[in-house]
């Protein structure tokens, strides 16, 4: 369902992106509407698929996950069957937290989060490199993250 966003909808999206725990009453006060129409607008944004989820953003290091990497993956053949087999295999690997189908040198870019380098090495050797349709991989260890915004710029 495609909906046209007005200024109030944009403000709701900005506020929810900065604090998804805001109560409906607080949200209503911030946007200048009463709680009932505010809740109605939020539900409309959810039903349209614009708001996909609400969640906590966890700091990986604070829960013992100290190594993050990007891995560029090329498949043996870029056809639907290989893509489906690859997607099925990586869906079963929880350490792969993002997968992007891309253009350019690689077919996919993965973001992987592990406890440490030995855990990352085991994951790559025992799981990712054993996916039969994988032809080539190039890993990049993330040294530091300068910007990691989960906020979508609302046009």
Describe it for me?
The chain is an alpha+beta fold. It folds into two domains: 7-47, Winged helix-like DNA-binding domain superfamily/Winged helix DNA-binding domain (Arc Repressor Mutant, subunit A); 60-141, Alpha-Beta Plaits, CATH 3.30.70. It has five helices and four strands. Strands 2-3-1-4 form a four-stranded antiparallel sheet. It is elongated, with a radius of gyration of 20 Å. The model has no long low-confidence stretch (mean pLDDT 95).
Could you give the topology of this structure?
Blueprint (H helix, E strand, L loop, with lengths): L6 H12 L5 H8 L3 H13 L19 E9 L4 H12 L4 E6 L6 E7 L2 H10 L7 E8 L14
Antiparallel strand pairs: 1-3, 1-4, 2-3
Helix pairs in contact: 2-3
């Amino acid at each position: 369902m495609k909906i046209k966003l007005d200024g109030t909808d944009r403000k709701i999206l900005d506020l929810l992106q900065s604090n998804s725990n805001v109560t409906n009453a607080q949200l209503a006060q911030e946007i200048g509407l009463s709680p009932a129409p505010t809740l109605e607008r939020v539900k409309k944004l959810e039903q349209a698929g614009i708001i996909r989820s609400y969640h906590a953003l966890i700091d990986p290091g604070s829960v013992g996950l100290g190594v993050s990497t990007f891995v560029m993956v090329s498949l043996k053949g870029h056809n639907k069957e290989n893509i489906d087999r690859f997607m099925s295999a990586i869906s079963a690997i929880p350490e792969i937290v993002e997968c992007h189908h891309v253009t350019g040198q690689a077919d996919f870019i993965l973001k992987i989060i592990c406890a440490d380098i030995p855990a990352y090495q085991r994951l790559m050797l025992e799981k990712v490199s054993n996916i039969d349709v994988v032809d080539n991989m190039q890993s990049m260890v993330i040294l530091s993250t300068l910007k990691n915004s989960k906020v979508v710029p609302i046009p």
